[in-house]
Amino acid sequence: MNACRVPCYRPAMELFLELGISLAIGLLIGIERGWQERTAPDGSRVAGIRTFGLLGLLGGLWALLGKELGPFLTGAAFLAVAAVLIVAHIADTRARGNVGITTLVAALITFALGALAVLGYGIVAAGGAVVTTTLLSLKPLLHGWLRKLEQQELQAALKLLVMTVVLLPVLPNHGYGPWAALNPFEIWWMVVLIAGISFCGYVAVRMLGVKRGILLTGLFGGLVSSTATTVHFARRAAQAVPVPLLAAGIVIACTTMFPRMLVEVAVVNPALVPAVAGPLLLMAAAGFLGALWFAYRSRGGQLEETVALRNPLDLRMALQFGLLLALIMVAAEAVQHLLGEHGIYLLATASGTVDVDAITLSLSRIARDSSADGTFAAAIVIAGLTNTVVKAGLASFLGGRKLAARVVPALLLVTAAGVIGLWWASGWRPW
User: Fold this and answer.
1) According to the model, what pLDDT value does residue 115 have?
2) To the nearest 10°, the Cα dihedral for 242, 244, 249, 252?
């Protein structure tokens, strides 16, 4: 009988492949660590590309032995490697005064990922290596973000997180009030959803710097508040600032609303996505093409802008949106019971003049308990169309004729794309 027990379990080539993944994981992380410390003299680093490669392979080998002799062996090997690395780190700290433990932690992760690859989780291990390497390489960017983060922004985020983590699990998850329309758990969960989406755009705007290009400002500013971004750009256009670029910024800010609405529907009611995806994506395509056309017609003009946006994680803003959401939920149930689908369309039109997030979330939630998906999908798109028309009016009123001559046709084209999308997707008729 063959004395080599390991190949009896799996073919040798499979084992070599897994060990190769373990080695590759170590080399990948080692390349990043070696590049970060490339200016250090040879022999002065705790671990470089070769050491990390060997650590990944070592993790794979010990995992292989652990499958034969017991998993405790792999754990003991991890502790031994950790002890060696800690001793080396202490010596490095005494010699160079370097107290950072990033390389130490990265080395331990490398060993663990190398072991994971041999235990049958090669894809997970490889993905973990990529994420680890990316995170290590983002040190300058992440530290730059922290320097730009203000205390009140951090405090606002922490307050909302505390309220979410503490309050959300204990909130009642059933309806109250007329038609049982008010579900405290769902209302606050939707508030957190909107705050999170808006905060992504807010962070992008803050992290890009004090000044940034019109298109990026429109894109990320529109993710936070397309109305606020439109108003700002329109006022700048009234001051004789280059109009074509500002028109591009307004159109792209307004267009960002449609992918945002689609994400909201997908989170609250995935079954409704097929009914709204066509019109919303068609409007988004029309808007982005219009913005790119204006940017092209500006003939390479450059304009840097900053938009003053409120932190979407501000607790007062979150509570105000929660109140608006609750009112629209009750109104949506009321008009559905009293006026039918025509009432839903009227409510969507009225709500769209002020805000699209609340009506989108409310109708998506109600649609979960209704078979009339087409009605609610059409109403959501109507809210987006109404809001687009309102912002076209705002831009025209605040920005003057030159801006209106560009923005109004572009947003009307977006509106027409939405109507065509509704007609094509569901044969919708408003009468």
Assistant:
1) 93
2) 180
pLDDT of the residue at 207? 66
Using CA atoms, how far apart are residues 392 and 362, in angstroms rounded to an integer?
25
What confidence tens digit (pLDDT) does each residue in 25-68 have?
A: 999 998 888 776 665 555 555 567 888 899 999 999 999 898 88
How far apart CA 78 and CA 108 sit, in angstroms, is 8
Using a pLDDT cut of 90, give the percent of the chain over it.
23
Query: Mean of the pLDDT values across residues 128-142?
Result: 84
What would the pLDDT profile of 176-222 be if each residue is shown by its tens digit?
Answer: 877 777 888 888 888 888 888 887 777 777 666 544 567 777 888 88
Distance CA 273, CA 210 (A): 37
Per the rule left: phi > 0, alpha: psi between -120 and 50, beta: everything else, 189 is: alpha
**DSSP conformation letters of 67-119:** HHH-HHHHHHHHHHHHHHHHHHHHHHHHHH-----HHHHHHHHHHHHHHHHHT
State how far the Cα of 422 lies from the Cα of 414, in Å rounded to an integer.
13
pLDDT attached to residue 338? 80
Report residue 213: phi and psi, to 5°: -65, 160
CA 9 – CA 129 distance, rounded (Å): 27
Phi, psi of 176 (to 5 degrees): -130, 165
DSSP conformation class of 129: H
Name the β-bridge partners of 212.
Answer: 305
Quick check: helix, strand or coil at residue 11? coil
Report pLDDT for 1: 43
The 10 Å CB-count burial string (b at 16+, else e) for 238-265 is eeebebbbbbbbbbbbbbbbbbbbbebb
8-state DSSP, 410? H
Measured CA to CA in angstroms, residue 306 lies from 163, 208, 243 at distances of 31, 10, 16
Task: Please give the pLDDT value at position 3.
Answer: 47
Length of the chain: 431
How much is the pLDDT for 48? 73
User: What count of Cα atoms within 13 Å lies in the side-chain half-sphere of residue 135?
Assistant: 11
- SS3 per residue for 237-281: HCCCCCHHHHHHHHHHHHHHHHHHHHHHHHHHCHHHHHHHHHHHH
Higher-pLDDT residue of 141, 71: 71
